[in-house]
Amino acid sequence: MKLLHTLTAAATSLLLASQSSQAALTLYEGFEYTSGDDLDGNGSGIGFGSNLWTGLNSSGTNPHSVGSGLSFGSLEVTGGSAERDIRNGRSTATRLIAASSVTDLTADNTTIWFSVLMDPTINTATTGGQPANTYGTLIFGNAGLTDSSSGTQNGAGTTIANSGDAVGVGFFGNTTFAGVGIQGVTFSDGTIDQGNGASNAITTGDSLSLIVGRIDWAADGSNDTITLYDVTDPAAGLPGTAFSTMTLDVDQTTFDTISISGGQTEAFDEIRFGTELADVIPVPEPSSSLLLGLGSAALLLRRKRA
Predict the structure, then answer these.
(1) Which pLDDT tens digit goes with each residue over 210-238?
(2) Are 273 and 138 in contact (CB under 8 A)?
(3) Which segments of 80-124 does DSSP mark as H helices, in order?
(4) What residues pair up with 262 in beta bridges, in sequence order?
(5) How is the chain split into domains, by residue range?
(6) DSSP, res 219
(7) What sign does the dihedral 213-139-96-57 (CA atoms) show?
(8) What is the pLDDT of residues 107-146, one digit of tens each?
């Protein structure tokens, strides 16, 4: 009986520890919606309250829709993705976050983390993306994106509403799919900055990437810093070197919006924001297997006693 109680207590403790290890996850969007539906009008996840996605067809065609979910190594994933399944036109999708999430993610002199799965083109057939025009973008800011870049390979034509401020990440195009890459993006008073150089970008080609961002908020009057990492193995954590570091001075306490844009067939998925790195690259914990073993042992002992 003592052994049975010990096994049960250990399993319970491990379960609680597993649950608490991700307790600081503030915002999560896994796009658990009906495949093929427009993203506009949908809303679930963590940290958004009752706010729904709102879509804008900046060129009048092909809004963001719900696509198949993306997966990446051992990263925990759910649901579908946000995608543009046909390259014609350009569109954006924006979602407000809950007031409590704003408070948790925007305090001065704090560090937060985010992650996202990004695929530059989910369809390279006749309706698929063109490498020169791949410029989808994800931002966290105080306004939504109003258009995706048109006619510029580096995405410099991407625009934000209300002279907004934001930080984020986006694709840049090339003459071939092999040259497509990812870069840091910031907005200050409506003006976009992408670093304009190889020091702020990586070449990924037509492949799925897991990007992790670290944001260090400073007090007003001092520069905030956004640092981006290309993670190849979620279980191994961050690589030794970041591929992008950008600074700007904004009042991040006004940041209450997540927004994505696209003009080709980009897909975004598994958007996470939290206060710890482990919150944004969750992988199944070793304790899960131990829990299963303890549970089986406890059940076997109970059966023997019966």
Answers:
(1) 999 999 999 999 999 999 999 999 999 99
(2) no
(3) 99-105
(4) 91
(5) 1-21+286-306, 25-284
(6) P
(7) negative
(8) 999 999 999 999 988 865 545 567 666 678 999 999 999 9
